[in-house]
Amino acid sequence: MSSSTEPATVTPRGALRRPAELARTVDVSGLVDTEGGLLDRAVFTDETVYRQEMRRVFAPSWLFLAHTDQFHRPGDFFTTWMGEDPVIVTMDRNRRIRAYLNSCRHRGARVCRADFGTTRNFTCTYHGWSFNLEGGLVSVPNREGYPDSFDTGQWGLVEVPHVETYRGLIFGTWNPAPVPLRESLGDMAWYMDAMLDHDEKGTVVVGGIHKWMLEGNWKLAAEQFATDWYHVNMSHASALMVLAPAGKKPKQEIVHRAGRQYVGANGHGAGFPVHPKNRFDDGTVHEWTDYDALRERLGDARVEGPLTNGHATVFPNFSYLPVNGSIRIWHPKGPDRMEVWAWTIVDASMPEEIREAQRLYNLRTFGPSGVFEQDDGENWSEVQGTAGGFMANRVALNYQMGLGGEREDGRHPGTTSELYSDAAGRSFYAHWRTLMNTPAWHEEHA
Fold first, then answer.
1. Which residue ranges make up each domain of the chain?
2. Secondary structure of residue 5 in the 3-state scheme
3. What PANTHER family does its record include (predicted)?
4. What confidence tens digit (pLDDT) does each residue in 19-61 have?
5. CATH number, span 186-442
6. Is residue 10's pLDDT more than 60?
7. Angle, CA 174 vertex, CA 68 and CA 67 arms, to 5°
8. How far apart are alpha carbons 33 and 407 in whole angstroms?
9. What is the signed CA dihedral for 186, 267, 171, 11, rounded to 10 degrees?
10. Helix 218-227 and helix 373-387, axial crossing angle in degrees, nearest 10
């Protein structure tokens, strides 16, 4: 994986000087009260707050880009987003994974409009500027029309300066001097390993990527996956009945589960039931799984907790569900819209028929038309739809469940709370508030 030391801002600017007024910032301290467990709905609706997020939350953070299984040979590429910036992730000729701003240096059009594929060069369809896999400008139509001072070496694609991986997950950041990815994850890595480290072969992607649009602020989804088991019994009641044996209600020990919630200082969060007999929901996957081998590799605490049922978010906008192998990104598309991209990942050692069973189970539960996924999307659009009113926007939201109950439980790394708690949500917004009120790398070097 790449780890360039070149800052993302070394681009010719000549006499250009952007007025400071174009990057107006607001103090968001009064919008988040983590001590009292209150949140102002302006965090979901205000355009100025949203634009500040792009600069101070997304620009400096580690953002999920892709899975390593999407790149097998030089020229393989995948296009995605970092906040609202389009990017290309590709394997260069030396088999190094790199990422570039997907924007031609001539007039700004995307140089790659395909979702994925294999290529030798990225060529802008507007005027034909072409860039190689290392981001260099290699072809300029009518080159003789430019002045002698025109240097193609200065007009290559803007590269994401740091790209790192963790157990097959590729992350990138625009920050030229970031905290290393593993350090940024902290104790969250222990919880992620319960999904990603079942065997030495790691994980692979099956079934492509599903994409859909939702009405709702991206944080509504990210915070739910970090902190909210509370909604399951109410929002997903019909789905739980469908999955229960015919003619029977879900067992009370399933409906009223005990568990823990990891509360990460960097905004990460994970919730999971805890039970000695936790298992994968799909029968075919359950029967294939060697739980004794997983206990030996991962330990009892992970197998009885975050290995199967549960939810998690890596701040700011990457989430996953271990029980069905779902990983997803919540792409912001304005204060009131998001685009969801979801992958199914499985253990590389899984036979084909087991992979297919897990893929189908994921589609039926958390695919675009899944029985659980539709409930969540409806909730987020409902919350967003009421937040724009003058009076509604002035009424604080309650995040007080589990307030003061955070502790180290001695079994799970880091600070944890009860399963039914808003603790990870409060931590999510506390970290968001810190970033929003802290000048980012591009402001410090301006």
1. 62-174, 186-442
2. coil
3. 3-PHENYLPROPIONATE_CINNAMIC ACID DIOXYGENASE SUBUNIT ALPHA (PTHR43756:SF1), CHOLINE MONOOXYGENASE, CHLOROPLASTIC (PTHR43756)
4. 877 778 999 999 999 999 999 999 999 999 999 999 999 999 9
5. 3.90.380.10
6. no
7. 10
8. 20
9. -120
10. 130
